[in-house]
């Protein structure tokens, strides 16, 4: 089985791919490398385009504790002395040993990113059991497990399909890296618990930089009110790792980084606040039952599967941006064109005026065709999504209406993984044509397709 990099839009296809695995793995890469090489590309373009949903409330073990923020300026000259560094390395060895030797462990992490482009949060929940077993869920959207000698990946919303890979020679971290396009997962327990057993003390700081800095080293160590703190410094930034005085586990990591190639004033702060618990055993053992489930070759097979031509178009009932209700099945006997779009999608904005030319042609030719845009994948609550879509649509003065899929349930039913995507649905309710991406020459192509669909009176 091969894993491939799923991050970011396909610049050559005219399709934006913000949903499902594309966004999740973009988050993994960002949080793992923390705006290092990918920061300028993924964070500044992908996230600025509103392709990331807010983290679900109530995750990360009912939110991680609000540990005090670590401040590099709090480390004195004495805290940076050789004696302090020696003590700090001994503490990191102790902390790593607690993670490795714990019979069981639960962890909830809230990752808050602040940059000149805005703020966002990601939540990671994990359970760690005996014999290398783990169960990690990111934002309630992606789940990875290790059970015995097998690694599994599923989407919690639909676990009917799964990816699996045999763990060879204990190299779970390599599998995780491959599954996330090389980014790994933003959780300090992973390198501590799954990494090699024999590690030199001076190599431990590199595990806690989470890819944000090149060659991070321990630069300081001090005792704070809630426990010891370690200062890491490397090319590209600094980090303060705060450990709990009682458990020696990590309560918080504060990273202050500047992405490669960015101006010095471009600063990004990333705070990992962590709630963890040491246990003698997990209340429920980690298992994964494959009965009745379908294995797929790679992570892209876990997401929504595109409808094929000839398939019955899933019925739905949505409102237009002006509040009128449209039910697809009530339009049986007419050809229906659905064009999935979003306000942040560049190819969509280029494609909608082209589609509007087809709409005007069909009206002049008195074709039995109904055209609808379908707004999807916007950020915010229902009211905010409606305002975004309506403000854009009203300003364009298109000759057709747009529906709004405010909970993104319809776009999921249609298996759309990138937008714009258009469906021509025949008079019998079956999908006749699927268009993906923006093509300036689609006007004549779609005219021919609609003539054929309108002539196929099967209903």
Task: Give a structural overview.
With 459 residues, the chain is an alpha+beta fold. It folds into two domains: 20-300, outer membrane lipoprotein receptor (LolB), chain A (Clam), CATH 2.50.20; 317-455, Glutaredoxin (3-Layer(aba) Sandwich), CATH 3.40.30.10. It is 26% helix and 29% strand. The protein contains eleven helices and 19 strands. It has helices at residues 20-33, 39-47, 59-62, 82-101, 172-179, 189-194, 204-208, 346-364, 382-396, 409-413, 442-455, and strands spanning 104-115, 118-128, 134-138, 142-147, 150-155, 158-166, 214-223, 228-235, 237-243, 250-257, 268-279, 294-295, 317-320, 325-327, 335-341, 369-375, 401-404, 421-425, 431-436. The strands form two sheets. It has a twelve-stranded mixed sheet. Strands 14-13-17-16-15-18-19 form a seven-stranded mixed sheet. Strand 18 (421-425) and strand 19 form a beta hairpin. Helix 1 packs across helix 2 and helix 8 (346-364) packs across helix 11. The longest helix is centred in the N-terminal third of the chain and has 20 residues, at 82-101. The two termini are 44 Å apart. 46% of the residues are buried.
């Amino acid at each position: 089985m091969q894993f491939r990099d799923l991050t970011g839009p396909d610049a050559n296809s005219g399709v934006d791919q913000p949903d499902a695995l594309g966004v999740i793995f973009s988050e993994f890469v960002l949080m793992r490398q923390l705006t290092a090489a990918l920061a300028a590309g993924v964070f500044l373009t992908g996230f600025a385009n509103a392709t990331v949903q807010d983290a679900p409330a109530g995750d990360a073990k009912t939110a991680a504790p609000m540990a005090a923020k670590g401040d590099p300026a709090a480390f004195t000259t004495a805290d940076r002395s050789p004696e302090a560094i020696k003590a700090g390395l001994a503490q990191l060895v102790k902390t790593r040993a607690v993670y490795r030797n714990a019979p069981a462990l639960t962890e909830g992490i809230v990752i808050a990113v602040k940059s000149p482009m805005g703020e966002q949060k990601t939540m990671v929940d994990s359970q760690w059991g005996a014999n290398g077993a783990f169960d990690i869920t990111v934002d309630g959207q992606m789940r990875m497990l290790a059970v015995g000698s097998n690694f599994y990946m599923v989407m919690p919303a639909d676990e009917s399909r799964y990816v699996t890979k045999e763990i060879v020679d204990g190299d779970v971290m390599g599998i995780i890296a491959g599954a996330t396009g090389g980014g790994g997962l933003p959780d300090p327990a992973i390198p501590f618990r799954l990494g090699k057993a024999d590690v030199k003390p001076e190599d431990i700081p590199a595990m806690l930089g989470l890819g944000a800095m090149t060659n991070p080293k321990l630069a300081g160590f001090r005792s704070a009110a809630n426990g010891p703190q370690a200062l890491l410094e490397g090319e590209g930034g600094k980090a303060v790792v705060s450990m709990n005085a009682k458990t020696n586990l990590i309560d918080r990591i504060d990273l202050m980084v500047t992405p490669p190639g960015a101006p010095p004033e471009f600063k990004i702060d990333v705070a990992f606040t962590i709630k963890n618990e040491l246990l003698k055993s997990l209340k429920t053992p980690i298992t994964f039952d494959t009965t009745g489930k379908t294995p797929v070759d790679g992570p892209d097979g876990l997401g929504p599967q595109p409808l094929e031509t000839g398939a019955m178009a899933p019925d739905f009932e949505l409102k237009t941006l002006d509040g009128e209700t449209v039910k697809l099945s009530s339009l049986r006997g007419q050809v229906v064109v659905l064009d999935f779009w979003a306000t942040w999608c560049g190819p969509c904005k280029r494609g909608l005026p082209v589609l509007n030319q087809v709409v005007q042609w069909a009206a002049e030719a008195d074709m039995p065709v109904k055209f609808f845009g379908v707004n999807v994948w916007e950020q915010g609550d229902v009211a905010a999504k409606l305002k975004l879509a309506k403000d854009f649509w009203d300003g364009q003065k298109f000759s057709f209406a747009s529906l709004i899929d405010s909970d993104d349930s319809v776009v999921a039913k249609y298996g759309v993984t990138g937008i714009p995507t258009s469906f021509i649905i025949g008079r019998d309710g079956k999908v006749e044509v699927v268009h993906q991406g923006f093509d300036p020459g689609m006007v004549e192509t779609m005219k021919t397709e609609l003539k054929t669909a309108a002539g196929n009176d099967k209903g």
